[in-house]
Design a protein that fits this description.
The protein has about 160 residues and is mostly beta strands. Helices cover about 15% and strands about 50% of the residues. It contains 1 helix and 10 strands. It binds copper (II) ion (CU).
Length: about 160
């Protein structure tokens, strides 16, 4: 005589069916569109021994929650800081943002000359127009993103919008 209690057996079958379906849905799920989109990263060529270079880009948050740019690193500089330029009386001053930058849901944050920017501190080599420099940006939710900055000629403004 079969002594296996039927309710338990069907519960076990139900659980294994659910986990199989769950596993299948994970396998079948298309790669999620990244919530953060990084556009037009660029920097400027530097003279030899330049102590700093700015890094500019646009960050689009397509997600439903705010994200934060927390920090950045680069093999092409001793370190990378997140900066803000702002008027202090009639002086333009630069300030390091230790708490990083928030990017609201469904919003775009532009890092540009005269505003928020990344600062490559002590570049390890001159930045040469036409080449690229690399930085890894760390976001609270978006994780690590490697970004390649187009080096534009000395004195350049932002590249034209695409
Ligand atoms: Cu700066």
């Amino acid at each position: 005589m079969n002594t296996f209690p039927r309710p338990l057996l069907s519960a076990a079958i139900a659980i294994s069916t659910v986990s199989a379906l769950f596993a299948a849905s994970l396998l079948a799920a298309p790669p999620a569109k990244p919530a953060l989109m990084i556009e037009a990263p660029w920097t400027r060529a530097t003279p030899p021994q330049a102590p700093v270079a700015g890094g500019f880009l646009t960050i689009r948050n397509n997600g439903r929650r705010a994200d934060h740019l927390l920090s950045a690193t680069s093999p092409d500089a001793e370190r990378v800081e997140i900066h803000e330029m702002r008027m202090d009386g009639d002086m333009m001053r630069m300030r390091r943002l230790d708490d990083g930058l928030a990017i609201a849901p469904n919003a775009t944050l532009e890092l540009k000359p005269g505003g928020y920017h990344l600062m490559f501190i002590k570049p390890t080599h001159p930045f040469v127009a036409g080449e690229t420099v690399t930085a890894t940006l760390r976001f609270e939710h978006g994780g690590m993103r490697e970004v390649r900055f187009e080096v534009r000629p000395l004195g350049s403004g932002a590249p034209p919008k695409r």
